[in-house]
Amino acid sequence: MAPAAAEQSKGRLRILLMPFFATSHILPVTDLAFHLTAARPDAVEAIVATTHANASIVHSALARREPSIHAAKVKVTTYAFPAVDGLPPGVENMSTVAAADGWRLEAAAATESAMRPAQERLIREISPDAIVSDLHFFGWTSVIAAGLGIPCPLFSVVGIFPTLATWRLALLGRVKDAPPGGSVTIPEFPGPEISLPVTEMSDFLRNPPVFDPELGAQYMMLLKSSGFIANTFVDLEREYCESFDGCGYAKRTYCVGPLALPMPPPAAAGAPDRSACLGWLDTMPAHSVVYLCFGSLTNFSEAQLDELALGLEGSGVPFLWVVRVKKAWEPPVGWKDRVGSRGMLVTGWAPQTDILQHPSVGAFVTQCGWNSVLETIAAGVPVLTWPMLFEQFITERFMTRAISIGERLWPEGGGVRSTKYEEHELVPAKAIAQSVAKFMEHGGAADAARRRVKELSPKAHAAIAEGGTSRGDVHQLIDDFMAARAPAAGTT
């Protein structure tokens, strides 16, 4: 019997994927589901499980893949989000929750008594052959999977560099010993020496929680038994991948990204559904425009938005600025008239992958979210960095120090930056104007960074294509799932 026929005779491999409740997590997990079904369309069934209010994000991500038959084979299922004090009904995503209440959603997601019952009912109802669980939450899925005798690798939405750096800092406990206002060098880390002020580290590094020893042991057992999946590709982080593998944290590491590739082609000029911002970009010279977008989780104060607006005005550089604010904000009086056609302000959503692929875009001002990192590398666009949250400050060092595809927007010594909203210092308009103007000078830093990122771009596309390293790891992941199922399939 041919291998494909043998697989079909056993029934399709059912893989249940469970992302955390943030768009930046849901999108790459959905993309992974797509790649799993595309790799073995006759043998694999992928099911993305999320809450009712988040299901539309999964459907939108799959619609982007249409008319692919593989996207149509990805199933979406839902379970109930628990009632949470302080959160209105239907608020189930980090991008829709008020900034002051984000901790409530995170706490609900991390609380076993709140989340496990609905998730466990769903898992037992579906009875999958494997579970892919979000690294940052839902640790109890490993216990459920162990009880069912199925593999449950952890999926990370960030790369190996920030993951390895964070684990080094956490496991070796260097942060808590740092003096107030001090910096910490990441220990036993390959590549250039990387140091960060304590203010630029996540709260759980600054104030380590007291972990349940039993849950911690189960977590490490899971890594060592089922593996670790990362949205990255080997040619981007080779020495960090090798160091991560050498640590023995996981039985196996699967580097399967960039999962957003292949990108759909941008809408052609004149297409009825083409975004107005792309039409505006058509009017600009090549590599002349600075594109600014800070993801779905960043919350700027009105004062900082004003300074950013005035800084872009003062830079003299054409810009396309996407502002995702949860409350009304208007630029300073007269700003739109003074900027005129040199700048475009978009409130809400914009087609980021289409924008980054546009030849007029010369630089990307980014908060250093990993999805944006991979998108800008795939498009070959250099960066100015402005991290705000979580591991973004570590990822910034990856872009500016390890692979040198851009620079910090606010130079060192400019003021305090922090992962905590209340510790942010205001970045003044003058500093923004000077940084943007200098970076975009002809023959300057942007041109040099563009040459380096242009070398990485084809490698990103090659990794996910047939014969690429990431495509190979997707197939290996499926093979390992099938091997784990084989003994059970043979029992009577």
TrEMBL record:
- Keyword Glycoprotein carried by entry: no
Q: Give the enzyme class.
A: transferase
Task: State the InterPro entries in the record.
Answer: UDP_glucos_trans, UDP_glycos_trans_CS
One GO MF term attached to the UniProt entry: glycosyltransferase activity
> Which keywords does UniProt give here?
Glycosyltransferase, Transferase
| Keyword check for Transferase | yes
The family database entries (Gene3D superfamilies) matched by this protein are listed as: Glycogen Phosphorylase B
- CDD domains the record matches: GT1_Gtf-like
Pfam families from the UniProt entry:
UDPGT
Signal sequence annotation: none
EC annotation from Swiss-Prot or TrEMBL: 2.4.1.-
Q: What protein family is recorded?
A: Belongs to the UDP-glycosyltransferase family.
Q: What is this protein called?
A: Glycosyltransferase
- Give the source species: Urochloa decumbens
